[in-house]
Amino acid sequence: MTKRSVSRRLVTSLASPKFSLNILCLVVTVFVLLQIWLLCLKGVDDHDGSWNYYALAWPQSLPVNASLQKGLTFVSYNHYDYGNMWHGLSAMVPFIAWSLRNQCEKPQRWVLYHWGELRFGMGNWLSEIITATYGQNIEFLRFVDENKPVCFEKAVVMRHNEGGMSRERRMEVFDLIRCKARNYCNLSLSKTSKLRIVELMSMTDVLVSPHGAQLTNLVLMDRNSSVMEFYPKGWLKLAGVGQFVYQWGANWSGMRHEGSWRDPVGEICQFPDTDRRCMSVYKNGRIGYNETYFGDWATSVLGKFKVRKMEDVVERNNGYGSVNGCMC
Ligand SMILES: *[C@@H]1O[C@H](CO)[C@@H](O)[C@H](O)[C@H]1NC(C)=O
Ligand SMILES: *[C@@H]1O[C@H](CO)[C@@H](O)[C@H](O)[C@H]1NC(C)=O
Ligand SMILES: *[C@@H]1O[C@H](CO)[C@@H](O)[C@H](O)[C@H]1NC(C)=O
Ligand SMILES: *[C@@H]1O[C@H](CO)[C@@H](O)[C@H](O)[C@H]1NC(C)=O
Ligand SMILES: *[C@@H]1O[C@H](CO)[C@@H](O)[C@H](O)[C@H]1NC(C)=O
What we know:
single chain; alpha/beta; 2 domains; 6-stranded mixed β-sheet; 3-stranded parallel β-sheet; binds 2-acetamido-2-deoxy-beta-D-glucopyranose; membrane; transmembrane helix; transmembrane
């Protein structure tokens, strides 16, 4: 059997709807294909992932109608929503970690899948962060014709988020993101509100905020900065583990999550407050605070901060520069 016919058979056998992207992906978590096999993708579906396929091919015998994309391509395949600041960022962290280990190699293009469905963009905040990190605009590969597979000279595929990474590696990534975002912000002439956020975060020692996507900005604060988080009534019992993401996020990027205030007072729900139906009542609820409690809490957080500041002469904007070829 010639190489060409093997690869064609492989492509044909995988190119049936039953073989969705999922299957091989389950086996291969991260693979970098250099010369030996090329990754090929086929399908243009952004609603039903089972119509998108992939296969491996030899460089000498690409599938019929296939085009070859030169250079490095990042392929993100997972169930995280690239429009959501926190989820999107956690899906990007492993790619940045890969670049850090590979002389800061930049992708020439991105292919994003969400549950196997193609996505052609990220939220604004996230694309700004990625643009700053790599110092170039993001190109999303457009698949236009379902009969024309696209093969990649070199592809890095990730199907996990930062959850699988060690704390040290995550910290390295956040050090780089923080530093790149600050430089990007400083160099840019027109200060949009997004850039002001980067500047503001770089000057913030203690961030006091209600739980919500805006807290993702905490990764832009200096290491060892503090976060105090506020929740409306009902969240502890009803909001699931997602409510803890900023505690993990703070820890993973080297901040200190200094605890949470959970408002015991709020909208009245007609069901017991452990009943899921109450979430729609509590969600987006206003948060009040107890002055005595907040006073003691803030005093303690600020006190600890002051001690730390006096102990270590914190070197700002200096976290990073250890990994080869990737200075910020
Ligand atoms: C190759 O492309 C042509 C034109 O789009 C199409 O008619 C044909 O079916 C394709 N062949 C395969 C094997 O997909
Ligand atoms: C921005 O640039 C100025 C002048 O080059 C420098 O003094 C300042 O520290 C920079 N700020 C940040 C946040 O990097
Ligand atoms: C993060 O969590 C680990 C384990 O719970 C803990 O040992 C560490 O001190 C935390 N780091 C920060 C900066 O809070
Ligand atoms: C406010 O907090 C203080 C200290 O935690 C507590 O003793 C007091 O009962 C609280 N007041 C209200 C109205 O919940
Ligand atoms: C953060 O705090 C720890 C413990 O106080 C200290 O060892 C470390 O050097 C600090 N890191 C930075 C970047 O200030």
